[in-house]
Design brief:
The chain has a five-stranded mixed sheet with strand order 7-6-5-8-9, with helices on one face. Strands 1-2 form a two-stranded antiparallel ribbon. The protein has a two-stranded antiparallel sheet with strand order 3-4. The protein is of the alpha/beta class. The chain has one domain: 3-Layer(aba) Sandwich (Glutaredoxin). Helix 2 links the parallel strand 6 and strand 7.
């Protein structure tokens, strides 16, 4: 059941639906926080991707980023990627945060919040687990340290499910 989100401005009204399990992940192109160019989600087709929306002012992100970094380090060679989408209005706030909580995965900047809007973000952090075909398998709103095992098993399940469908087609 899609939840309707109404985004109103002074000049027009936009109806947007929150991205949910089973939906195709909305494609996007965002600049890397490091300034090394831009990233397009479609370029990650064939990988299992966790799109993690976070901000430097988000307290649970202090727990989630290091745990996701460890998870990424152990599963990257199996086709798993993390795209961390930062929502700070000032990218320097995010850069300072990452000095304290460094990660080994790609961090993107969504200063204007357009991508967060296209995903219908309601809370921080929120992550979307996207399978190799670009379909959202799981949506996680909020974060507690105990969530990482559930997230890990969902990633492993997506990696294995996609592996078996690929081998059956050959």
């Amino acid at each position: 059941m899609n939840k309707l989100i109404i985004l109103a401005t002074t000049s027009f009204c936009v109806l947007a639906y929150a991205t949910e399990r089973g939906d195709a992940a909305p494609d996007f192109e965002l600049p890397e926080l490091s300034g090394n160019g831009t990233v397009v989600l479609a370029d990650y087709a064939g990988k299992v991707v966790l799109i993690d929306f976070w901000a430097s002012w988000c307290a649970p992100c202090r727990d989630s980023l290091p745990l996701l970094a460890r998870l990424h380090a152990t599963l990257a060679d199996r086709g798993f990627e993390v795209l961390a989408v930062n929502l700070d209005e000032d990218p320097d706030d995010a850069r300072r945060f990452l000095l304290t909580y460094p990660v080994g995965y790609t961090v993107l900047s969504d200063q204007a919040g357009h991508v967060a809007e296209s995903y219908g973000l309601k809370t921080m952090p929120t992550s979307f687990l996207v399978d190799r075909r670009g379909i959202v398998r799981y949506v996680h709103e909020g974060f507690h340290a105990t969530d990482i095992e559930k997230i890990r098993s969902q990633i492993l399940s997506a990696l294995q499910a996609d592996q078996s469908t690929r081998t059956h087609h050959h």
